[in-house]
Amino acid sequence: MIRGEKVALRAQREDDVPILHEELYEDVVTRSRGDNRPWLPLPPSQSPLAAGEPSDGHAFFAVVELASGELAGQAGLWGINTHSRYAHVGLAMRPAFRGRGLGADAVRALCVYGFTVRGLRRLQIETLADNPAMIAVAEATGFRREGTLRRAAWAYGREVDEALFGLLADEWTGAPT
């Protein structure tokens, strides 16, 4: 388990999946804006929010609020490239847990995992350019805006720009001394 100030990242359990599926996957508009794969009508048993088998290419965690012990969302690294030593950051918070600083704390914990545990040299966040919450998380955790990918996403019926943020291991302020 990796602990932040407000959240812990732990292995996702089987009983997390129905909650995450109902609140994050079944919200078609939000899911369409947060994933570049098309939404499909899937039962919880086939949910893409299930962590699946361990892999060198991804690491997904349940985000647990420390104060309540409740499941707050899912966070992970995906597209992990062990040769070039970089990964993409993913975050999805349950509606009741948004706007409380838990997302930024989860991303900081992912930085510990990515930079300290996995030895990566770069993490990046891609988010829709009209997603102020994730942009605020990226900036609050030290990621730098590196560019805009014009009309790179199809989000619930329209083309949307993506904002690209990056953080290098030697820029990370949470690095152990």
Question: Can you put this structure into words, describing what you see?
Answer:
This protein is α+β, with helices and mostly antiparallel strands and 177 residues long. The chain has a single domain (2-171), classed as Aminopeptidase. 23% of the residues lie in helices and 35% in strands. It contains four helices and eight strands. The chain has helices at 17-25, 28-34, 102-117, 132-140, and strands at residues 2-3, 7-11, 58-65, 71-81, 86-93, 122-128, 144-154, 159-168. An eight-stranded mixed sheet has the order 1-2-3-4-5-6-8-7. Strand 5 (86-93), helix 3 (102-117) and strand 6 (122-128) form a beta-alpha-beta unit. It is globular. The two termini are 21 Å apart. The model has no long low-confidence stretch (mean pLDDT 94).
Average pLDDT score: 94
Q: Termini distance?
A: 21 Å
CATH fold type: Aminopeptidase
Numbering strands along the chain, what is their spatial order in the largest sheet? Answer: 1-2-3-4-5-6-8-7
Classification by helices and strands: alpha+beta
Main β-sheet, in a few words?
A: 8 strands, mixed
Q: In percent terms, what proportion of residues is strand?
A: 35-45%
Helical content (DSSP H or I, runs of 4+): 10-25%
Low-confidence stretches: none
Shape: globular
